[in-house]
Amino acid sequence: MAKRLFFTGIVLAASGLLSPPLALASGTAYGLLLRNPYQQDSRNLAKFLLQASVVCLGFGMDLREVIEVGRSGLLYTAVGIAFALALGAILGRLLRVGRTQSFLISAGTAICGGSAIAALGPVTNADEEEMAVSLGTVFVLNSIALFTFPAIGGALHLSQTQFGLWSALAIHDTSSVVGAAAKYGALALAIGTTVKLARALWIVPVALVAGAVKKNGTRVQLPWFILWFCAAAVLNSYLPQLHAAYASVYRLGKLGLAVTLFLIGTGMTRQTLNEAGIRPMLQGVLLWLIVASLSLMAILRGLIHL
């Protein structure tokens, strides 16, 4: 029964019958009610599919737009990451959250969710429990954002440019940024994806600084798929003869994203919720609400724009 429903969910997501938010909701319901018989395989496949889907989405981007958006968002990204890390450290100390857990949750909020935590965990000598708590906290909030952000954006009548920028600044993981932005519109998707991927590159300097503080020589894993995303944008921009093929690959990327979100949802188990813990979860919630609110206010007042 569990296996049959698992593969049915994958097929429905891959066929396009499940939108990204609905795919995540279905996967989450599955994870909470049933036991995924392929838990580790699902995690590995979700990681690969997310990267492959992002690369495919690059075939729908214009390189000049990618460069312009990345350059315009550079200052906002640097200031936003520094602010989130500092505020996260303060909240973690006030709530008496372990230093490593606090840093990982702050970095996941500031940069790019689970990817940042996975990259920074070895550098900070985080143990399995600290990794599980940090990932669980960010994952729960990430899922909430995918459902709530499009509704908030619609209620506030945000333009696609405003929503794409806000989602990239305030949603943790790339997958949920892409999912929420795709639901809002094509321009929101282009901006959200580009700004978020530019933000993900900050994993490297943050990891190097953290490694120097910890005096840890662990090698930093570079997010190479971002370079392939840029390569796809180059092809789309300068080889227009293949636009029909690019459009097909772009659609394939959106379907792959739905499958990715279904697989991610199946990882939301009761154990995940229990592992998150009250204090780390409270730190993650407060930090996320403050970052999301301030970035939204700045966008609405024109302080942050592209």
Structural class: mainly alpha
What fraction of the residues are assigned to beta strands by DSSP?
A: under 5%
Specify the number of helices. 15
Which radius of gyration do the C-alpha atoms yield? 18 Å
Distance between the termini: 49 Å
Query: Could you give the order of the helices and strands?
Result: HHHHHHHHHHHHHHH
> Which of globular, elongated, flat, extended, rod-shaped describes the shape?
globular
- Main sheet specs: none
Structure characterization notes:
The protein is an all-alpha fold and about 300 residues long. It has one domain. Helix content is about 80%, strand content about 0%. It contains 15 helices and no strands. Helix 1 packs antiparallel against helix 13 and helix 6 crosses helix 7. The chain is globular, with a radius of gyration of 18 Å. The termini are far apart.
Top keywords for this entry?
0% strand, mainly alpha, single chain, 306 residues, globular
SSE layout:
Elements: H1 2-15, H2 20-33, H3 39-57, H4 63-72, H5 74-94, H6 99-123, H7 128-155, H8 160-170, H9 174-184, H10 186-200, H11 203-214, H12 225-238, H13 243-266, H14 270-276, H15 278-300
Question: Summary?
Answer:
The chain is mainly alpha-helical and 306 residues long. The protein has helices at residues 2-15, 20-33, 39-57, 63-72, 74-94, 99-123, 128-155, 160-170, 174-184, 186-200, 203-214, 225-238, 243-266, 270-276, 278-300. It contains 15 helices and no strands.
